[in-house]
Amino acid sequence: MVGVPRKPRNRLAARFSRPEVLLLYTPLLDSRWLIFKGINVTRGALKVGVGAWVGVPMLGLTVKVRWRRG
């Protein structure tokens, strides 16, 4: 079977095996992934920030109340 091009198993592989298509898709996928990661990281930081902003004063309040009662 020399000279016969091997057929890729799925269509996606066939689509991405062409270098020009891959070059076209790569920046798109990259930016989308980076934006997604950025949103996730930002959301995580925001959650931690809000948690600290709400949690620390609440903790201080709890300690104060306990200290007064004790």
Helix/strand layout:
Elements: H1 11-16, H2 19-69
Description:
With 70 residues, the protein is mainly α. The termini are far apart. It contains two helices and no strands. The chain has one domain (11-69). The mean pLDDT is 69.
How would you sum up the global shape? rod-shaped
Q: If you compute it from the alpha carbons, what radius of gyration comes out, rounded to the nearest whole angstrom?
A: 27 Å
What is the straight-line distance between the termini?
88 Å
> How do the SSEs run, as a string of H and E?
HH
The figure for the number of domains is 1
Helix-strand makeup class:
mainly alpha
Q: Overall pLDDT, averaged? A: 69
Give the % helix.
over 70%
Largest sheet: none
Number of helices: 2
What key phrases describe this protein's structure?
2 helices; single chain; mainly alpha; 81% helix; 70 residues; rod-shaped
Summarize this entry quickly.
This protein has helices spanning 11-16, 19-69. The chain has 70 residues and is mostly helical.
